[in-house]
Structures are given as C-alpha cells and as structure tokens.
C-alpha cells in the first residue's frame, strides 16, 4: 500500500488463486468496522482475474480513509450483476 495525496494505492500480488469458472471474478474490498451481511461497511477497490497459473499482480487506487476502512478483503464473485459482495471471502488482511 502507498499513501498518496488523494488516498492510497494498493499493489496486490498473489501466486495461487484458484481459477474461477467462466463469468466469475475476484473483487478487492476496503472493509470497515462492523461490516456484516446485514449491514455492509465496505467499498470495492475493483475486480480482477488471475493469469492461467493463478498469479495476480494488480494495482487499485481509492480515495478512502484507511482509518475508516483498515482491512482488505478479496471475495470470489458470481458475475451476476449484483454489486453487493458475495461473502465468498478467499483472502483477508489483519
């Protein structure tokens, strides 16, 4: 993560994400306190696909306050057009 004048830039790397079925994708989220299925407190940073070997290297920029959204989460999304997170979380920061 790099702090900038307008927010932060996240460099995300992974070497072993599963290849999802066609039409599905991964989504990176900035997560705040109290986030739950009933009351979401998260902002999408963006979506991505790993390469055929499961490797990912992507950059996301967001103007979110890191104090309000201190956790990063990666979910597997069904590609159904619903902007809400699926909650199929595959990675989470501390």
Overview of the structural elements:
It is a single chain. The chain has strands at 2-4, 7-14, 25-31, 42-48, 56-62, 71-77, 89-92. It has a four-stranded antiparallel sheet, with no helix packed on it. Strands 1-2-5 form a three-stranded antiparallel sheet, with no helix packed on it. It is globular, with a radius of gyration of 13 Å. By secondary structure, the protein is mainly β. The chain has one domain (2-92). β1 (2-4) and β2 form a beta hairpin.
Briefly, what is this?
It is built from no helices and 7 strands.
Low-confidence sequence ranges: none
User: What helical percentage do the residues reach?
Assistant: under 10%
Oligomer: single chain
Tally of discrete structural domains: 1
Largest sheet: 4 strands, antiparallel
Individual helix count: 0
Structural class: mainly beta
Radius of gyration: 13 Å
Shape: globular
Alpha-carbon distance between the two ends:
14 Å
Beta-strand percent range: over 45%
SSE arrangement, N to C: EEEEEEE
| Rounded average pLDDT | 90
Tally of DSSP β-strands: 7
* Sequence of strands across the biggest β-sheet: 4-3-6-7
């Amino acid at each position: 993560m790099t702090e900038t004048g307008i927010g932060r830039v996240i460099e995300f790397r992974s070497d072993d994400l599963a290849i999802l079925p066609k039409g599905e994708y991964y989504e990176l989220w900035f997560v705040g306190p109290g986030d739950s299925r009933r009351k979401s407190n998260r902002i999408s940073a963006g979506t991505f696909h790993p390469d055929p070997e499961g490797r990912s290297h992507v950059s996301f920029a967001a103007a979110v306050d890191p104090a309000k959204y201190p956790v990063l989460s990666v979910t597997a999304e069904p590609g159904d057009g619903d902007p809400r997170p699926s909650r199929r979380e595959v990675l989470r920061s501390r």
